[in-house]
């Protein structure tokens, strides 16, 4: 089957709902009180060291695109207090949940972007990140919607620009066709190298992997996750 051509002129990455069920009172309060101090100010990003986003020194900065309920983002921030994390999520319920967790746990190494991630990617400094995670993105399984998949030429170029040499792009999915789609594009890109040396390298989750609610649902429904890592050359 012939795949639709990537649309490099696309200006936005987010498709779908921005809000689900009504926020709980505590979540709404956290959004109003805490999100302003946690939010990344895009206007101040160009020319600014990313480490300046955080009140304490960090040795590296990582980005998670579409963090969902925030399970992985928060777990990684707790495991690595010396690393700064930027979480991007356009779904307001996910932003509300992450904001509440960051505030309640007192995490100083997390910043949040509650909108389409493309404007953020375009303002991040070249080579400023040592890792980008894209975990269980919407696979848009219908062929007419493939153009909405996040892994495409324009966004691969964006990720390549912001990753430092030796940096990692990590991708997880339980949809075999999306895994194949991503592998075709990343292995054909001279800027990236797939790090897997054997099947277990992509069948087993990464060290410290906390799992996510979506992943648990996929396993219950008989879909096996894959964990793919690519090194920026």
UniProtKB/TrEMBL annotation:
<feature type="binding site">
    <location>
        <position position="89"/>
    </location>
    <ligand>
        <name>S-adenosyl-L-methionine</name>
    </ligand>
</feature>
<comment type="function">
    <text>Catalyzes the formation of N(7)-methylguanine at position 46 (m7G46) in tRNA.</text>
</comment>
<feature type="binding site">
    <location>
        <position position="64"/>
    </location>
    <ligand>
        <name>S-adenosyl-L-methionine</name>
    </ligand>
</feature>
<keyword id="KW-0949">S-adenosyl-L-methionine</keyword>
<comment type="similarity">
    <text>Belongs to the class I-like SAM-binding methyltransferase superfamily. TrmB family.</text>
</comment>
<feature type="binding site">
    <location>
        <begin position="212"/>
        <end position="215"/>
    </location>
    <ligand>
        <name>substrate</name>
    </ligand>
</feature>
<comment type="pathway">
    <text>tRNA modification; N(7)-methylguanine-tRNA biosynthesis.</text>
</comment>
<dbReference type="InterPro" id="IPR003358">
    <property type="entry name" value="tRNA_(Gua-N-7)_MeTrfase_Trmb"/>
</dbReference>
<keyword id="KW-0489">Methyltransferase</keyword>
<feature type="binding site">
    <location>
        <position position="138"/>
    </location>
    <ligand>
        <name>S-adenosyl-L-methionine</name>
    </ligand>
</feature>
<dbReference type="Pfam" id="PF02390">
    <property type="entry name" value="Methyltransf_4"/>
</dbReference>
<dbReference type="InterPro" id="IPR055361">
    <property type="entry name" value="tRNA_methyltr_TrmB_bact"/>
</dbReference>
<protein>
    <recommendedName>
        <fullName>tRNA (guanine-N(7)-)-methyltransferase</fullName>
        <ecNumber>2.1.1.33</ecNumber>
    </recommendedName>
</protein>
<dbReference type="GO" id="GO:0008176">
    <property type="term" value="F:tRNA (guanine(46)-N7)-methyltransferase activity"/>
</dbReference>
<dbReference type="GO" id="GO:0043527">
    <property type="term" value="C:tRNA methyltransferase complex"/>
</dbReference>
<keyword id="KW-0819">tRNA processing</keyword>
<feature type="binding site">
    <location>
        <position position="116"/>
    </location>
    <ligand>
        <name>S-adenosyl-L-methionine</name>
    </ligand>
</feature>
<keyword id="KW-0808">Transferase</keyword>
<dbReference type="InterPro" id="IPR029063">
    <property type="entry name" value="SAM-dependent_MTases_sf"/>
</dbReference>
<feature type="binding site">
    <location>
        <position position="142"/>
    </location>
    <ligand>
        <name>substrate</name>
    </ligand>
</feature>
<feature type="binding site">
    <location>
        <position position="174"/>
    </location>
    <ligand>
        <name>substrate</name>
    </ligand>
</feature>
């Amino acid at each position: 089957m012939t795949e639709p051509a990537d649309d490099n002129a696309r200006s936005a990455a987010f498709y779908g709902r921005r809000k689900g069920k009504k926020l709980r009172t505590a979540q709404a309060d956290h959004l109003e009180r805490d999100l302003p101090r946690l939010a990344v100010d895009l206007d101040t990003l160009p020319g600014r060291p990313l480490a300046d986003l955080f009140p304490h020194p960090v040795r590296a900065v990582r980005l998670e695109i579409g963090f969902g309920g925030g399970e992985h983002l928060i777990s990684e921030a707790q495991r690595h207090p010396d690393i700064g994390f930027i979480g991007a999520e356009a779904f307001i319920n996910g932003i509300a949940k992450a904001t509440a967790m960051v505030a309640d746990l007192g995490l100083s190494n997390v910043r949040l972007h509650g909108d389409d991630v493309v404007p953020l990617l375009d303002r991040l400094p070249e080579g400023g990140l040592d890792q980008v995670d894209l975990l269980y993105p919407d696979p848009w399984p219908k062929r007419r919607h493939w153009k909405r998949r996040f892994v495409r030429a324009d966004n691969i170029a964006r990720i390549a620009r912001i990753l430092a040499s030796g940096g990692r792009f990590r991708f997880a999915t339980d949809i075999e066709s999306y895994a194949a789609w991503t592998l075709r594009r990343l292995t054909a890109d001279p800027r990236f190298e797939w790090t897997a040396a054997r099947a277990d390298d992509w069948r087993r989750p990464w060290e410290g992997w906390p799992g996510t609610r979506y992943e648990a649902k996929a396993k219950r429904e008989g879909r096996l996750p894959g964990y793919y890592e690519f090194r920026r050359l």
